[in-house]
Design brief:
The complex is a heterotrimer of chains A (124), B (282) and C (134). Chain B has 282 residues and is an alpha/beta fold. Chain B has helices at 3-14, 16-29, 37-55, 68-85, 90-98, 100-111, 114-158, 179-196, 213-229, 240-248, 262-272; strands spanning 162-165, 168-174, 200-207, 232-236, 257-259. Chain C contains five helices and five strands, in the order E-H-H-E-E-H-H-H-E-E. The chains are: A alpha/beta (124), B alpha/beta (282), C alpha+beta (134).
Chain lengths: 124, 282, 134
């Protein structure tokens, strides 16, 4: 089964989701991220979905879960690169992705993470 | 292939040119001024009809893609569309197709014996009527299609997305907001936000006369989509009456930033993106 | 994938959900749906095929390309012989916003398409048919 690679950039873990994932791949990503956050003590998680053409409720819930899990492990999550058609569809679907911070692209995402860390230096 | 269509098929196979000649002559008599394309239209139609009849009798319902009768329908549809674009009426196009009957009758009379003539004529009539009917139906749809596309173009022209500042876009909405309109604007705006990497989009509704629950819903959806993508939104140009309507209807703006004027919205946008404006003595 | 006007796909595993999405994508591309419409349809298909697998115990997706008077469309039916839905009212209640509903994503999926039909009863399986017109 394929596992999505997790890269590390300083205090931030970077994940790029490009393929049409099976449900189990999404769940594996969740587990892998939790483990890596704990292992590395990362304070930021960036999930790049600019290559995702479809975000359904399963993927949406995965993003919310990752955000929640990361928070418990003292890391902030930012999801970047959501395609316009995906945003429109998610709104119509009624999925609000509560608790998930988003930014337009990786650069903005890193800015956002930096700002959040500055505002809450001792954790959440 | 039943006998009724055999005679017809034989004519289509061997008498294409005389058929076209008489057809065009009949069509010209009907009052439609012949255009250069009529001759090639006629030929294309006859050939498609021939291929279709060769493949089998006309199907009962709507033919499936890949079927020769489906291809024939396609030819009829493009004929319809090109006529519609030229401003011709559904009647004109129908008359053109029906004019084929006379040409078919002439040929059938020449080649069939008395017994076979009546059923062959009936089949030919039925078939041509069906073709004409199809053009009328698709004519209607084609016109509606053209109108819709023109509306969309008008829409794009009337709701331009402009860059007010680095990272700040604005969309002045003018006229009534319906779901179709809002969708087009939404898609254009979202794409521009991505393209320009803008942080804030200002939707100005000064030019929108009324806001009801439906309009508010469309606006809310647009704002939600913008925020989902990671940008923010300010709705400006809210006139006092609209503000009252919003409260009256109990519409929950869900924490959307609102400002009475575009100028105020710009000030807020600049503030949010970290700009400070100072006045320097001239 | 060759553009087939009708067909059936089994939904018996997670890979089949992915196959459903890919098949629907190919069909939408063939029909030249707009990007937004395509995204909506594939997303609805993803939701409904997952329901079929997870709640229906497996089943199939039947599709049909529609062509009515020059108007093109795509119809998909998601069928299973599972337990069926006992409380249809609840199933069609918006869950994510109100906190109620059944989490089947039915009202959401319905908003993504033009026509939505659901047939289900306890012990009689479920069939959800959706249609998107160009």
């Amino acid at each position: 089964m394929e596992r999505i690679p997790i890269l590390r950039m300083g205090d931030t873990l970077l994940v790029t989701i490009q393929l049409d994932m099976q449900d189990r791949t999404a769940l594996a990503l969740q587990e892998d991220l939790a483990a890596r956050i704990a292992d590395t003590g990362a304070t930021g998680v960036m999930i790049d979905i600019s290559g995702l053409e479809i975000v359904d409720s399963f993927v949406g819930r995965m993003l919310s879960s990752i955000s929640g899990i990361a928070r418990i492990l003292s890391a902030h999550t930012v999801v970047v690169g959501m395609q316009p058609a995906v945003a429109i569809t998610l709104v119509e679907l009624g999925l609000s992705l509560d608790g998930v911070r988003t930014a337009l692209n990786v650069e903005r995402g890193m800015d956002l993470l930096r700002r959040i860390r500055e505002e809450a230096p001792l954790g959440l | 292939m039943t006998q009724q269509y055999e005679a017809l098929l034989a004519i289509l196979d061997s008498k294409e040119d005389p058929l076209i000649q008489e057809w065009l002559a009949e069509a010209a008599q009907g009052g439609t001024a012949p255009a250069a394309s009529f001759s090639s239209d006629a030929r294309e139609l006859l050939q498609a009809l021939r291929t279709a009849l060769h493949s089998g009798p006309p199907p009962r319902g709507t033919p499936h893609p890949g079927n020769a009768w489906h291809t024939l329908n396609g030819v009829l549809e493009s004929l319809s569309r090109s006529r519609a674009a030229r401003g011709e009426t559904a009647g004109d196009t129908s008359v053109f197709v029906l004019a084929l009957k006379k040409a078919l009758f002439t040929q059938l009379q020449a080649t069939s014996d008395a017994a076979a003539l009546a059923p062959a004529l009936w089949s030919a009539t039925e078939l041509v009527d069906r073709l004409a009917q199809h053009t009328v139906t698709t004519f209607q749809l084609a016109r509606e299609d053209i109108i819709r596309r023109q509306q969309e173009e008008l829409l794009e022209l009337s709701t331009p997305v402009v860059k007010l500042w680095d990272g700040v876009l604005a969309v002045p909405m003018i006229g009534t907001l319906d779901s179709n309109r809002t969708q087009v604007v939404m898609e254009t705006l979202l794409q521009r936000i991505v393209d320009t990497e803008s942080e804030i989009a200002i939707i100005d509704i000064t030019g929108v006369p009324t806001v009801d629950t439906l309009v508010a819903q469309h606006l809310l959806k647009t704002v939600a989509a913008i925020r989902l993508m990671g940008a923010d939104c300010i709705v400006s140009g809210i006139r006092p009456q609209i503000a009252q309507t919003i409260v009256h209807l109990g519409i929950d703006l869900q924490g959307i930033h609102t400002r009475a004027t575009l100028a105020d919205a710009l000030a807020l946008a600049l503030q949010k993106t970290g700009w400070r404006i100072g006045r320097v003595p001239a | 994938m060759a553009f087939e006007p009708t067909g059936t796909l089994p939904i018996e595993s997670e890979q089949h959900i992915v196959a459903c999405r890919q098949t629907v994508r190919a069909l939408c591309a063939g029909l030249r749906f707009s990007l937004v419409d395509q995204t909506k349809v594939i997303t609805a298909a993803s939701e409904l095929s997952r329901n079929t697998l997870v709640h229906g115990g497996g089943g199939r997706m039947r599709w049909e390309v529609l062509d009515q008077h020059g108007r093109s469309g795509l119809r998909m039916a998601f069928e299973d012989e599972g337990p069926g839905i006992a409380d249809m009212q609840l199933a069609l209640t918006d869950g994510w916003t109100s906190g109620g509903g059944m989490g089947l994503g039915l009202p959401g999926s319905r908003r993504l398409v033009n026509e939505f039909d659901i047939r289900s009863a306890p012990g009689q399986g479920t069939c959800v048919t959706i249609t998107k017109w160009k």
